[in-house]
Design goal:
This protein is α+β, with helices and mostly antiparallel strands. The chain starts with a helix and ends with a strand. It is 48% helix and 20% strand. It has two domains: 86 residues, K homology (KH) domain (GMP Synthetase, Chain A, domain 3), CATH 3.30.300; 64 residues, Ribosomal Protein S8, Chain: A, domain 1 (2-Layer Sandwich), CATH 3.30.1370.50. The longest helix is centred in the middle third of the chain and has 23 residues. The chain is elongated, with a radius of gyration of 18 Å. Strand 5 and strand 6 form a beta hairpin. Helix 1 packs across helix 3 and helix 4 packs across helix 5. The strands form two sheets. Strands 1-2-3 form a three-stranded mixed sheet, sandwiched between helices. Strands 4-6-5 form a three-stranded antiparallel sheet. It contains five helices and six strands, in the order H-E-E-H-H-E-H-E-H-E-E.
Length: 157
């Protein structure tokens, strides 16, 4: 039995209960993770109204929402489930945006042969950028600084 069928009711129920407390109507869809190579379960929440409240500034509310869902599921199922929560495809569009920003920075680094730092971002976003830029043989990436100001530096080889 796979993770989706085994815990589908638990996950859907927890997300619906939390959004219900906020008087938000939403659809919940479960599927295998499509964000990166880490095996996990993607939980897509589609909220026609007040999605920005669930997402928050720079996805902070979304991170908190995911943390609460994981904590409740861990207590309920007695196991840690690898869940990634997304609201109105925010994470997917954010990943696309970050990859575009990183590719433009790579172009500038190649042209100037000088290192360039990206804006601070959380670890899961830095991971997306590191994984994408690993395919470029003429550049290297490094995370510098301390949270919450930790950022990626793109350097020429």
């Amino acid at each position: 039995m796979n993770i989706i069928s085994e815990h589908k009711e638990d996950i859907t129920g927890v997300v619906r209960k939390i959004t219900g407390y906020m008087n938000l109507e939403c659809q919940v869809e479960l599927k295998e993770n499509e964000y990166d190579s880490t095996p996990s379960l993607a939980v897509s929440v589609y909220a026609p109204e007040n999605a920005r409240f669930l997402i928050g500034k720079n996805g902070q509310n979304l991170q908190a929402f995911e943390h609460v869902v994981k904590a409740i599921l861990t207590k309920k199922t007695k196991q840690t489930l690898p869940v990634i929560l997304d609201v109105n495809d925010y994470r997917k569009s954010r990943a696309t945006y970050l990859i575009d920003v990183a590719k433009h920075a790579v172009t500038r680094v190649r042209t100037t042969q000088k290192a360039e730092a990206l804006v601070p971002m959380p670890s899961h976003e830095r991971r997306i950028v590191h994984m994408e830029l690993a395919a470029y043989p003429d550049i290297t990436t490094e995370s510098i600084g301390n949270e919450p100001q930790r950022r990626i530096v793109i350097k020429p080889l």
